[in-house]
Recover the amino acids of this structure.
């Protein structure tokens, strides 16, 4: 039987993860179908996804009501965590066969620490341990942002045997720090005689947001440009995100396939820390709706897609090994943006700050919704 484009993508060595979770996905057999028909081998969640799922549907009302009736003193945060952990556990169980068949390389479900801990190292470590223990599944990833404060938490949690999805990565400099945190943790475990063969990690690059911000900055410059300069600036639109990701993959190859440091760890059973392409839905309707999938295909990588991108790729996606193409051009794109007055560091710093705030806002919105539901039910109960 002919493969659909998603199955072809999986066969090419790229894992397809679903950037979405909701209870009906788990209870109706929809996830089982996606695993079978669309080669889905993992799931990522974040505060924004849960805010839409829990706050924007009635899927959780029955479970929420039962929790409140059982203990009306549970806070909105406790209610959320209980519901989220239940979803993550159910998804982990459905993906456990993938985890087992790939010897722990794939089949993961990610749950994120509170976005309000983005600059709190000790708080992140404590919450990562709690979430890991509560989910209590070998194929759970705890997501920790790759911020300055997140890096020591990432290294410590990995050293202590917790598999980590390092999220909110935009810059190549931070990616190198993230990779080093993983290698440091592996080396510490080896030195202590602890196993490394089941410790896993992915480095999650946010892709489309890079183009969204860079294109906005380009548009401001295009307004006052003319002639050849205007044409040159226009030619740079929609190029930064793919260039950034392709250069990150080159760094990945250098660290995990060309260095003696990782070769020694691999001999002990260590797995590579795969690059994961996140934020891969196309924000600009002028661009191909599968651009951030088609342009970033390569082995030992993950692309986590929202449902609409999965459906679009299944319908008209083209599979070709694109991730290692145009590397010189990718370097030129970043150089030309700098020459045009668009600072790569300023862009990535801004995106990191905005990303953390977006997740915090979504989390706060969800807490407000849960508190309103809790209060309403307690009033109805005469509480």
């Amino acid at each position: 039987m002919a493969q659909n484009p998603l199955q072809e993508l999986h066969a090419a060595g790229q894992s397809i993860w679903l950037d979405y979770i909701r209870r009906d996905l788990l209870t109706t057999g929809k996830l089982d179908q996606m695993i079978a028909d669309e080669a889905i081998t993992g799931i990522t969640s974040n505060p924004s996804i849960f805010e839409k799922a829990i706050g924007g549907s009635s899927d959780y009302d029955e479970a929420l009501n039962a929790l409140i009736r059982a203990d009306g003193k549970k806070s909105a945060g406790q209610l959320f965590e209980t519901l989220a952990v239940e979803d993550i556990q159910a998804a982990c169980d459905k993906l456990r066969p993938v985890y087992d068949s790939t010897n722990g390389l794939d089949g993961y479900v990610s749950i994120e620490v509170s976005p309000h801990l983005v600059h709190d190292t000790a708080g992140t470590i404590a919450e990562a341990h709690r979430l890991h223990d509560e989910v209590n599944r070998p194929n759970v990833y705890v997501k920790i942002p790759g911020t300055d404060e997140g890096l020591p938490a990432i290294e410590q949690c990995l050293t202590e045997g917790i598999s980590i999805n390092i999220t909110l990565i935009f810059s190549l400099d931070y990616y190198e720090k993230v990779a080093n945190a993983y290698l440091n943790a592996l080396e510490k475990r080896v030195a202590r005689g602890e196993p490394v063969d089941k410790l896993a990690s992915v480095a999650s690059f946010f892709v489309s947001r890079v183009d969204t911000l860079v294109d906005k900055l380009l548009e401001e410059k295009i307004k006052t440009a003319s002639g050849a300069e205007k044409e040159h600036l226009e030619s740079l639109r929609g190029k930064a995100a793919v260039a950034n990701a392709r250069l990150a993959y080159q760094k990945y190859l250098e660290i995990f396939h060309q260095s003696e440091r990782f070769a020694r760890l691999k001999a002990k059973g260590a797995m590579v820390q795969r690059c994961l392409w996140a934020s891969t839905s196309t924000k600009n309707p002028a661009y191909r709706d599968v651009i951030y999938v088609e342009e970033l295909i390569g082995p030992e990588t993950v692309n986590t897609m929202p449902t609409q991108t999965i459906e679009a790729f299944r319908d008209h996606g083209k599979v070709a090994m694109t991730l290692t193409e145009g590397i010189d051009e990718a370097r030129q794109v970043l150089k030309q943006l700098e020459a045009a007055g668009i600072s790569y560091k300023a862009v990535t710093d801004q995106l990191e700050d905005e990303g953390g705030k977006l997740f915090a806002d979504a989390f706060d919105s969800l807490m407000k919704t849960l508190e309103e539901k809790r209060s309403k039910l307690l009033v109805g109960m005469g509480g």
Summary: The first strand starts at residue 14 and ends at 18.
